[in-house]
């Protein structure tokens, strides 16, 4: 009983440290970071994300340890007579297959989850990056320059947003047969994702450009490019970061949906979406096959949502206090 | 009575249903329990003799390809057409097993009279035959439908009439008013029809079981729309048919049971619900509640439900599972490098893992490993093992052959399959990877598979299709899939390997001209072995067709001619209340 008592005050003191340090004026970034650190949910989210990113990066190492690659068939692990159901309980969990095997082919679920994480996270991160780049660039341009530029870009955004994007994605992905599906998937998701962030950025820029310091800079003869880079963009950083973290869960879900519809990554490369699509037929006879990839997708989406929420609060002190 | 398996495969897979394709009888190495394939319990007929009346429900996940008798050439659809909606000159007996392979007179009074060395065939129609509207069926109506099978506007049907009849070259069918002359089909009176063939066809009595030889009244011709409402000459007529959703059949009061030795027509109404999913159908029939007790499945039991059925004796009793008589193959595009090299193709025979492939389509319970092209039903029931390769393949031998062929490090190729065929494709992919062959799998919508594979420019190196005999004769098997003269640039069917071998073609023609069926059978088997050595395709599995029926169903059995589909001629209910 003494140990917990001892640590509790210590932790309390540790938490108080940043507050005492901040007797000296802290930068807004340091403030935001310390606010973020105090949020348990945010830290949990971050930990989950780090865990999955590490797992994805270390997939070759981890599968080397477990001894089963993602594409290795194991006929002995499934009961072919009963429609290829995994042998053993809980979807065939065994010392050879740490998280069991897929029905029919007997591929190792642990290995496929790890390699699936690579694809799912790669697609989500790359598309998020592209979306942010395009969205910020066009949003800032439209908002800052206004007039005809704004009109053209805004109408273009309207067109892209009112487009039946899912149908178009399915059509495009099924027509383009000989291209790299991974790149195409990233491209298509980005193409239809950027207008949402661009709109927000445009609105923010519109109000920012009438602020006094921007007016002052302009009066001093500062070039537009310089104003954009040094005055406007830094004030948009919070919005952008929050937007990215909130967009990533949606992108992971979209990749899963497209793969589920059969237009995503080519087999046998695993992705979480593909695994879930394969497993829905088996939810009753082999629930573990369904639960594992779904749980991974759920955790990552939840983690990003938590982190994004917390980031928004941390970067927008006024908002968090209300 | 043949079906083009690939079309059926694609359609079935459309609803994420993996067909229970057959695989190997001799699966060594599997340590689990009962190793025998699952067959229908009892004497092969479920539920005894039905009573008259009641409503039978057929649960399906797909529309019928074509019900137009001139275009109906996919397997279970032929069963629907020929057993319920239209009658043909002769038809197969309503019985399971070998008995079902025998033919009986249907519209005709006998099995046909050959003359001129089987080059001329004469059939006489029975008295008092009528359509659903009461008008009489005439011999000219049968001639008219045979002519329709020549029409480019009505594609996709059995082409036996086109192959066999002594019709002028370039005949384009009757839709523009041009009829066939006496040199092809003679109709001396309303009840006699005489077919004149290009060459002797000893089995023509079997050929006229095909829907091509069903009557179509010229006055009711609607061209491509005829599929929506074929005029009934059989025991049922279409009350409503909303394609892809629902078809309701009611009794055709003008059908005379006394004239029909085969069809019993027990239920009063038959409802086909085409909006279900493969898993949903299986779940409903396993649960067996309410009206589902009067229901049967149109589509194969999905692999994910197999364990539920086999471990539950009450449900297993209601499972029909007989050999479909089809061969599922890995087809290689013999016009495309490296598959233009026979050594490479031969290596594939050793490289594939038929056991793993079979596991993805229901495992040993519903598959026998195919060891040659001709299914056992065409080789007197004895499967022939040409190469004696282990079911799991022989990668070392395959590698050795690849090295001899100049590909010591393997090569890359592509396989196009439907979205539902992914697991099968992955089993092939993993097996070929063992010998250094990298397969890129492209999954496309099931409806697009045939158009891609049938197109010379788009066809990938590999495809995974199958073929079923139209009637129990190798003449409906090898000539349909290995006759190089049938290859088309676009819309190619049948010979999808584009295998064009003069020696094979000469032999096909020689056997086709033989009048002794025993000798012909021996020659087919010999030719089968020769083609295996040239290896345009790898036979993978001989499938069973697992179909569930409700507990109130009687007279349900798999008919050997319609790829193991339930015979709709004599199915009914145990109790009509």
User: What is the overall silhouette of chain A?
Assistant: elongated
End-to-end Cα distance of chain B: 34 Å
Radius of gyration of chain B: 23 Å
Shape of chain B: globular
- The amount of helix of chain B comes to 10-25%
Distance between the termini of chain A: 39 Å
Nearest-integer average pLDDT of chain A:
82
Low-confidence stretches of chain A: 1-22
Main sheet characteristics of chain B: 6 strands, mixed
CATH architecture of the domain at 327-544 in chain B: Roll
Percent of residues in β-strands of chain B: 15-25%
Descriptive account of the structure:
The complex is a heterodimer of chains A (322) and B (577). Chain A has 322 residues and is an all-alpha fold. In chain A, 73% of the residues lie in helices and 1% in strands. Chain A has a two-stranded antiparallel ribbon with strand order 1-2. In chain A, strand 1 and strand 2 form a beta hairpin. Chain B has 577 residues and is of the alpha+beta class. Chain B has a domain at 327-544: Dipeptide-binding Protein, domain 3 (Roll), CATH 3.10.105.10. Chain B has 16 helices and 19 strands. Chain B has a six-stranded mixed β-sheet. A five-stranded mixed β-sheet of chain B has the order 8-9-10-1-11, covered by helices on one side. In chain B, strands 4-5-7-6 form a four-stranded antiparallel β-sheet, covered by helices on one side. Chain B starts with a helix and ends with a strand. Chain A binds chain B through residues 71-73, 75-76, 78-85, 87, 103-106, 174, 177, 262, 266-268, 278, 281-282, 284-285, and chain B through 16, 27, 29-35, 279, 302-308, 310-311, 353, 355-356, 358-360, 362-365, 392, 419, 422-423, 425-427, 429-430, 433, 440-445, 448. Chain A: The chain crosses the membrane at residues 41-65, 119-144, 156-176, 182-201, 240-263, 288-311. Chain A: It holds the Pfam family BPD_transp_1.
